[in-house]
Design brief:
Blueprint (H helix, E strand, L loop, with lengths): L4 E4 L3 H12 L4 E4 L3 H9 L8 E3 L3 H6 L6 E4 L5 H10 L8 E4 L5 H12 L4 E8 L1 H7 L2 E5 L2 H14 L2 E2 L2 E2 L1 E5 L3 H30 L4 H11 L7 H11 L9 H4 L9 H11 L5 H14 L1 H11 L13 H30 L5 H7 L10 H11 L9 H24 L4 H13 L6 H12 L22
Parallel strand pairs: 1-2, 1-4, 2-3, 4-5, 5-6, 7-10
Antiparallel strand pairs: 6-7, 8-9
Helix pairs in contact: 1-6, 5-8, 8-12, 8-13, 8-15, 9-10, 12-13, 13-19, 15-18, 15-19, 16-17
Bound molecules: 6-phosphogluconic acid.
Length: 470
């Protein structure tokens, strides 16, 4: 008997996704470049093995699928995806479909969708979030492609996806690269959420001399309030774990140098292309890049004296930190959704903002209680910046004071809070009716005759610079 769906690439994510699909009752055929990996995978599939067909060649994979075929690719993003499409294409028939479930750059997905429209196999790009656990038991899925192609695979995707109060977290976001774009911004927000947590962790560790176990306790408490989220939950968990070799908290023996595969960077790059302000995410990317320069940082510590210093006794209370995090989170998501909105306009996608917030409520890495409130606020008025939605405006009105206190105290003690501080700076800019860009315009006109608008009306004025010392 032929399988309903195929999957290529049995790395961690591919293997977990295949098991998830089989568990939901679909017969699946799998192929991996290395045959031993395929064999080992099926040998370890237990009860699910009867629904899984191991194949030894691409041709065998294709033969073992019901037509029209649907084949999921779970291979590293970039060239491997193009190679796999090139290898599969001659083996496929009209109507067959390739689904790229990796972390593709949406511009690649746009190009691949274009190739499909020119006569190649049908193509869907789906962003899949949730790590290993999510892939196995319910990820969040952000689709991009043609509605009719999505409809064909939707029953499988909805079956394997996470459920929020029964609603599957699997949504078609728009054409071509729309799903991978949304996944990219998801990852940018993921970087920012992680960075803000790391910053507050740093304030507690260095500014308040709190041991990891105490920090864990606070995270745990926050996870029961407005900050309830997967990332706070795992931060409570990791700070509670003890290293078996040294008996110290494991976070204390982990090197402070963070890597990235690139999705956070892509978010920042695309935001710059779109002139969309996302300083919190950009700061998070910057912070990872700075963390990587360990040697230079050590040199800096030797030259300028070690930062940070301990905060004055009682300068900050745990509830200040929680409130500051709430403000930071609202500002970060407001920026992220505004970026999505700008991309939607620019690329003609009509991205469904409330649906994006909904699809992130379960399964994905940034899942949190607040996303449900965001879904509601975006449904009220999708085009409005989230900071102006009454629910969040009220929240910010209260919590920005704590963010301000935290950023100010931290600055005095040399505790770097790039993400939280840039969120605050953006918030303050957003409530400054008279900004300082008049000075920028004057300078531009002075050195380049770029012209300026006047407050009393009219465009393309020039200053009398030459007459008065210019
Ligand atoms: C997810 C994650 C996942 C992964 C990325 C980001 O949504 O499940 O975002 O896709 O962790 O690879 O990782 P980097 O930190 O390596 O960029």
């Amino acid at each position: 008997t032929q399988s309903e769906i195929g999957l290529i690439g049995l790395g961690t994510m591919g293997a977990m996704l295949a098991l998830n699909i089989a568990e939901k009752g679909f017969a699946i055929a799998v192929w991996n470049r290395t045959t031993e990996v395929t064999q080992r995978f099926v040998a370890n599939a237990g009860d699910l093995a009867p629904r899984i067909t191991a194949t030894q060649s691409l041709a065998e994979l294709v033969r073992s699928l019901k037509a029209p075929r649907a084949i999921i690719l779970m291979v590293p993003a970039g060239q491997p995806v193009d190679d796999q499409i090139a290898a599969l294409t001659p083996l496929l028939d009209e109507g067959d479909m390739i689904i790229d479930a990796g972390n593709a750059n949406f511009r690649d997905t746009n190009r691949r969708a274009q190739d499909a429209a020119k006569g190649g196999p049908q193509f869907l790009g789906i962003g899949v979030s949730g790590g290993e656990e999510g892939a196995r038991h319910g990820p969040s899925i952000m689709g991009g492609g043609r509605a009719q192609d999505w409809a064909r695979i939707e029953p499988v995707l909805q079956a394997i996806a996470a459920k929020y109060e029964g609603t599957p977290c699997a949504t078609l976001m728009g054409e071509a690269g729309a799903g991978h774009f949304v996944k990219t911004v998801h990852n940018g927000i993921e970087y920012a959420d992680m960075q803000m947590i790391a910053e507050v962790y740093g304030v507690m560790r260095d500014g308040m001399s709190m041991p990891a176990a105490a920090i864990s306790g606070l995270f745990d408490g926050w996870n029961k309030g407005p900050l309830q989220s997967y990332l706070i939950e795992i931060s409570a968990a990791v700070t509670a774990v003890v290293d078996q070799k040294t008996n110290r908290p494991i976070v204390d023996v982990i090197l402070d140098r963070a890597g990235q595969k690139g999705t956070g960077r892509w978010t920042a790059i695309e935001a710059q292309h779109l002139s969309a302000p996302i300083p919190v995410i950009e700061a998070a990317v910057m912070a990872r890049n700075t963390s990587a320069r360990l040697e230079e940082r050590l040199k800096g510590e030797a030259r300028f004296g070690a930062a940070p210093q301990t905060l004055p006794e009682g300068a900050l209370m745990p509830q200040d930190l929680e409130a500051a995090m709430i403000a930071g989170k609202i500002l970060c998501y407001a920026q992220g959704f505004a970026l999505i909105s700008a991309a939607s306009d620019e690329f003609g996608w009509a991205l469904p903002l409330p649906e994006i917030a909904k699809v992130w409520r379960e399964g994905c890495i940034i899942r949190s209680a607040m996303l449900n409130d965001m879904a509601q606020a975006l449904a009220e008025e999708p085009g409005r910046n989230l900071i102006f939605a009454p629910f969040f405006a009220d929240h910010l009105e209260k919590s920005h004071k704590a963010l301000r206190k935290l950023v100010a105290q931290a600055a005095l003690c040399g505790l770097p809070l790039p993400a939280l501080a840039s969120g605050l700076a953006w918030f303050d800019m957003m409530r400054t009716g008279r900004s300082t860009a008049n000075m920028i315009q004057a300078q531009r006109d002075f050195f380049g005759a770029h012209g300026f608008e006047r407050i009393d009306g009219g465009a393309d004025h020039h200053g009398p610079w030459a007459l008065q010392g210019g």
